[in-house]
Sequence to fold (478 residues):
Amino acid sequence: MIINPLIHKTGLMNQQIKLTVNGIDHQLEVPATRLLIDCLRYDLGLTGTKEGCSVSVCGACTVLVDGRLSASCITLAVAADGAAITTIEGVAQGGNLHPVQQAFIDHGGYQCGICTPGQVVAAVALLEAIPDPNEDDVREWMKGNLCRCTGYYAIMQSVVNAARLAHQSGSHRLDTGDLR
Amino acid sequence: MIDFQYHSPESLAEAFELLDRYGDDARVIAGGTALVLQMKQRLAQPGHVIGLRRIPGLSDIRWESGREAGRETGGEARIGSMTTHQEIESDSILKDRLPLIASTFKQVSTPRIRSMATLGGGLAHGDPNQDPPPALIALGAIAVIRSNAEERVVPVEDLFIDYYETDLRPGEIMTSVIIPALPAGAGGVYLKFLPKTADDYATVSVAAVVTKGEGNTCQDIRIVLGSVGMTPVRATEAEAVLRGQGLDERNIRDCGEAVREAVDPLDDFRGSASYKRDMAEVFTRRAVQQAAAACRMA
Fold:
């Protein structure tokens, strides 16, 4: 169990919530101030999701909440009560990398790696929403995920190729709930 | 963040009860993209946060065809206040019948924010730099606001009182927004000037809706600007320059010049006040030209 420096401060009123994270149900007791990213990282030990800017701009903390692209750094855990969450840890299925992950490896879609979990989750959501995206779709969708190494061309290549790969294999669909 | 208690009412009645019980100490939360940030920065410190997510019926997009004296009129869109920007930008009926709305919502921030942020949450936030308000005002949209006691309608134009201050009163919740169809012969456009990054707030933005009359005349026009004052700014005097006049280059130039007097921008890192005033003029001119070109004739 990861020691959590944020929880159980004096005076905080804890609330019971249920989160289904990557298909596994969790009953949690959290203060209302708890952010979803802290809940994932500290309460559940899922440290794949990263915190960058903390103000919903950089995209490092991107997760799917009931299939919706979301910034976990500005999502209250209590507001996600009952939701199905997909994090980077839930993207590979049955030991097989998701086509997006494979494409990031094949096309050098990451450098230092900090933004990569958010980039991959965003790209996975893109393929759910637009199975056959063109380059403009990819650029528009991914513009909210910043890479301070500025590896944008390789990220673009990775996502475009992931779309092609997923399209061929037809194996990219994630069970993330209803994605509109 | 200051400690608070979170409530998730399952009906409007339950939400009103909570709002009445906690009064000034309560804040309503929709998508959370604005309020959670304010709470993290301690700009907002409510003791009770009331989430609207579980209340059914607040996130529908419906088109009601209008009927007057047995004749079809343009109709109107009724959009629930909890509808996300993403749902609005991708709705096929809105894309077809109110393309100005679909395209404006698509210009907001990033897809991640748009899949969280809601129509009503954005309006209740009262930030004059946002994209939807100028377009909604230019289209004559109306906000439906409810409390325990009554339902009232407020033109979006009258919703904004001051910087981050709206006409929403304690105990009230915005439940939907009604957007009338464009009249025959009308066209609209929203231009967002973004010199820095693609996900920024506008340096200056302009929504224009033009209704063409006989020949190339301007039968009616609405011009609304964002990011140029404490609230969205409707440029009524600039509209008057064109109303009933020809949509020619000279009149459009005069209209753009008249906008300079209507705006009162702030110096900030997106540009000086005088630069923004210049850009307000330039973008008004472009918006009027493009709206006139987009007019769908009856």
Observations:
- DSSP finds five helices and five strands in chain A.
